[in-house]
Amino acid sequence: MSVLPPRLLRLSFTPKNDFFHLKTKAFLVQKLSETTDLFLTNLLHTLILKLGFATDTFTANLLINKYVKLREINTARKVFDEMCEPNVVSWTSVISGYNDTSQPQTALSMFQEMHKARSVSPNEFTFASVFKACSALAESRIGKNIHARLEVSGLRSNTVMSSSLLDMYGKCNDVETARRVFDSMASYGRNVVSWTSMITAYAQNARGHEAIELFRSFNAASTNDRPNQFMRASVISACTSLGRLQWGKVSHGLVTRGGYESNIVVATSLLDMYAKCGSLSCAEKIFLRIRCHSVISYTSMIMAKAKHGLGEPAIQLFDEMVSRRIKPNYVTLLGVLHACGHSGLVNEGLGYLNSMKEKHGVVPDPRHYTCVVDMLGRFGRVDEAYELAKTIEVGAEQGALMWGALLSAGRLHGRVDIVCEASKRLIQSNQQVTSAYVALSNAHAVAGGWEDSESLRLEMKRGGNVKERAYAQNA
DNA sequence: ATAGGGTTAG
What we know:
By secondary structure, this protein is mainly alpha-helical. It has a domain at 365-475: Serine Threonine Protein Phosphatase 5, Tetratricopeptide repeat, CATH 1.25.40. The protein has 28 helices and no strands. The chain is globular, with a radius of gyration of 27 Å. The termini are far apart. The structure holds one DNA strand. It holds the Pfam family PPR_2. GO terms for molecular function: RNA binding.
């Protein structure tokens, strides 16, 4: 950390606009651009305020960006709120700060405020950040709306712009629109990023064959661009989605010949592919060859072991990860809870749930609770599962998963009361869960209430769910 | 000058 010269600390009383003053400002801006340290940033911030430089938009923007990079979004926001004349860079920086701290909803409301303020118009940078927020929320309705504004702005014919737009549609599961954007880019140019976005859109929407087909066209069409680690990882995940080891092995051969086998991103997707296509031993081989591990490589391997019923080894791996000072995140803890739930380590699982915040700084969210509800239910502790589920505030989609888990537990352990309760909650969740109607109807039938059963089937018909019956009864 | 697009775990 660099140290401020004492001379500078006495400059607070310098009259404005003289030579020394300007020089001081240049010095502070210079120091601010260089530092990556929170303490020094705070110090420079104080000096900037004292000397009245905060009224300068450029200087304030630098401060905002510094705080965004340091993940101090609230401080960044405070600087922004106190600005005299925020420009498009100030707005965009704060929006992307909210993206970086997993607050896409706030990013979008900032964009709305910017629109209302009308003093500043969004540019390419702003739109790219806002589409990223839509992607994170998988909100295609809002995305479409902003897409319309982008078309009006005339900024659309730009490779970065269109790539972020097509990525947004892919993440919102609207592959057809994503493809239309991709096709429209032919006139002004695509690059590796835009091709990767489209391949990813297919891969993440269970259309692996089309992803691979597009990868082939890329190799056939482009003369300058070569596939990079991102594209290769995406192609491997497309193979994973096909669930066929054969395809996965082909892609493995391909990345080995390309010299990408030891790349961390590629290796992680390979290990996930092997785990999901049925070869845990190959997955482990890949894992052991990784030199520089990430939270994702560990999490993938923990998940793989968990899914194969290797609870203890998964937990051992978790301990190893923690001792190597790789910080687990919420997905890692989901893996650990899964490991417990698939190996009957029920009390251990409860222990992880109750201590994850304190020990690992990860606040349990509805997904973690769902996992534990499922675990308790599987191992006969249905009442505890129910008591826990009742206390969780949960959105409709996740709620359907949580009550669905409880429904299976009720069925598995012959608990008509739980089946009824879980089915009702499932139906309340308003998701398209026909199995809930079927289960509730069957439960009434079991309990002797044939009339209830019949009325439910009627309700189901009215709800247009009747076609799903055959599927639901197999599920 | 300061801000923006693609990837791997769920």
